[in-house]
Specification:
Radius of gyration: 35 Å
Helix content: under 10%
Strand content: 15-25%
Oligomer: single chain
CATH architecture of one domain: Sandwich
Structural class: mainly beta
CATH topology of one domain: Lipoxygenase-1
Shape: elongated
Strand order of the largest sheet: 6-3-8-9
């Protein structure tokens, strides 16, 4: 007796007492969900898997946002204004965007109760990739491991091989076999392996330090572990706050701050020594030698190695006598 009028539904011509006879009423129990959507114990409704019973108001379909459209049929089931197809968190009205796909929302609606944690780095790469390639005139067998598990093998015979792509992790390069010559026709040493991280070249390894015909097995390179490369040594994570301060877009992973020395501080704005050569940007400009503050190979002259360039040092040779009184200041 849905409407409590003393007449059971099977004898009541208007089950919900809304003034519309049941044959003409598309919501017999008056719960706001149509009979076609709810269905009943004998007939499945349109709200597949959401429950509901058109014969009683006490059983209604799942409706997360309470908009009287069951979740199965609702194109925005959490009711946050973003369609399910474009909502990274379609079951949580507190967030809808996850730029970097790491499972953490770019932002959370103020005052909204949720188990989600706001992302402090919206455009972080979802996993930068290592790329290892061989480029050598020697015969090489190289194995690449992550956590002791073989990922791939590179082999060469007067040729190149690769790249070996690894999505993430700390890698170990192991030389299983190496023979033939370090130099090619007496030229400078050949590149043995090239390693890139996130598309940027981070290290090149050469066969030996000699330009000679001698077998590379005779020198420092021999079968065994060649090097271990740590992901954390190359990955710089830029928080949204840092990107905003540095003037780049915190939701565009291709727009990152310039960081010459890779110390996690953007040049000029956060970093007082862009190239990490020991001389501040200001000093490199003031030392009078037109040094570049973005190259650690181009630094001011510092005769006594006291960290003060000669142009600013009143005792260049550090002998205790100021240059103006020193017959031999250098």
């Amino acid at each position: 007796d849905v409407d409590g009028d003393g007449w059971g539904n099977n004898a009541d011509y208007d089950d919900d007492g809304d003034g519309i006879a049941d044959p003409d009423d598309d919501d017999d129990d008056g719960d706001g969900y149509s009979d076609a959507d709810e269905g009943d114990p004998d007939n499945a409704g349109n709200c597949v898997g959401d429950g509901g019973n058109s014969l009683t108001q006490t059983i209604t379909p799942d409706d997360m946002d309470g908009d009287l459209i069951c979740d199965y049929l609702d194109t925005d089931r959490d009711g946050d204004g973003t369609d399910n197809t474009g909502d990274a968190f379609e079951d949580d009205a507190c967030a809808d965007t996850d730029t970097d796909g790491d499972g953490m929302p770019d932002s959370i609606v103020a005052g909204c109760t949720t188990t989600l944690t706001e992302d402090s780095d919206d455009d972080a790469a979802a996993g930068a990739a290592w790329s290892i390639s061989t480029s050598s005139y020697s015969t090489l067998d190289v194995e690449i491991y992550v956590g002791g598990v073989l990922q791939c093998t590179l082999s060469t015979y007067y040729d190149t091989d690769g790249p070996c792509e690894i999505s993430s992790g700390d890698i170990e390069v192991y030389v299983d076999y190496c023979s033939w010559y370090c130099g090619y026709y007496g030229d400078s040493t050949d590149t043995f392996i090239s390693v890139s991280y996130g598309g940027s070249l981070v290290e090149t390894l050469t066969q030996c330090s000699y330009s000679t015909y001698s077998s590379c097995n005779w020198y420092w390179l021999y079968p065994g572990t060649l090097t271990t490369l740590l992901e954390s040594s190359y990955a710089v994570v830029w928080s949204d706050a840092s990107e905003t301060e540095c003037g780049t877009d915190p939701v565009d992973s291709s727009d990152t701050p310039t960081d010459t020395d890779g110390d996690g501080l953007c040049d000029d704005i956060q970093d007082s020594d862009n190239d990490n050569d020991g001389f501040s940007n200001a000093d490199e400009a003031d030392c009078g030698e037109s040094n570049s503050n973005t190259s650690d190979a181009d630094y001011p002259t510092d005769t006594d190695a006291d960290g003060v360039c000669d142009g600013l040092d009143d005792d260049d040779d550090g002998d205790g006598t100021v240059d103006t009184d020193d017959a031999f200041p250098l």
